[in-house]
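Lecture 7 notes: from sequence to structure.

We start with a single chain of 325 residues. Read the sequence below before looking at the structure.
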Amino acid sequence: MESPNQTTAQEFIFSAFPYSWVKSVVCFVPLLFIYAFIVVGNLVIITVVQLNTHLHTPMYVFISALSFLEIWYTTATIPKMLSSLLSERRSISFNGCLLQMYFFHSTGISEVCLLTAMAFDRYLAICSPLHYPSVMTPKLCTQLTLSCCVCGFITPLPEIAWISTLPFCGSNHLEHIFCDFLPVLRLACTDTRAIVMIQAVDVIHAVEIITAVMLIFMSYVGIVAVILRIRSAGGHRKAFSTCVSHLIVFSLFFGSVAVMYLRFSATYSLFWDIAIALAFAVLSPFFNPIIYSLRNKEIKEAIKKHIGQAKIFFSIRPGTSSKIF
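Now the structure, written as tokens:
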């Protein structure tokens, strides 16, 4: 039975946002631009892949699935950040906080699994090019994508369920810009359950991250070994070009995630906590559409083709209006 000073929090108040109205607006404008760019950029990639049949290959199916997840990954946190920047009372309900943590981590873990599947896809394409079409069939590609999402949406459920049962006492001021496991757990009453929970969360995150990194690392060890056996310089460039985008996205996302979630007992200042959180929650998704569109020749050509078609469609040819009237 809970003691009188151990109650379930009804809401949390974000205390990491600037209190000055001018500073809030200065933060709001670029964040709004970044969020709009993430949504529009990823929608463009999804649309281009769907409209061009020659892009209906496993690699582009994975890229469009990643773009879809990126939209929801950022939507879990950024809209609430934007409203908090312009609001006097920067609060979120306890249930809203649990939902935000769940969708942020479920889509994030789904992305981790998908990036791992993409590494496996590149390994098959480069190391077994003759068997690749028969192994990486559309059915297997769909199964891998769905499995990544199922894994992502199931994995955080136990953590969310445990946190929902914890008693909270004292301050309800959350020293962060969105709800995340460790900042919320710091507000839980300091008892054995909370300490064990923090340790369990650390171990779960470590296993998820290290497993994905090891699988991707082993895939690229095999890829590099095959590429080094290719004699022509053109062959080297072509093989590496199919992996560079994935490696950049992997490095950006996993680098910041590892710094945040593989800390264990280490603590950072509030400034660095927020900076690292922004790196994997905002900046990494911001760069992904740029990386996959600017570094990918086929997507660039498809975008240019559709822009050209749109210009022709919306342009008014000389004499059209006079013929109408």
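Residues 11-262+269-297 form a domain with the Rhopdopsin 7-helix transmembrane proteins fold (CATH 1.20.1070.10). Keep this in mind for problem set 3.
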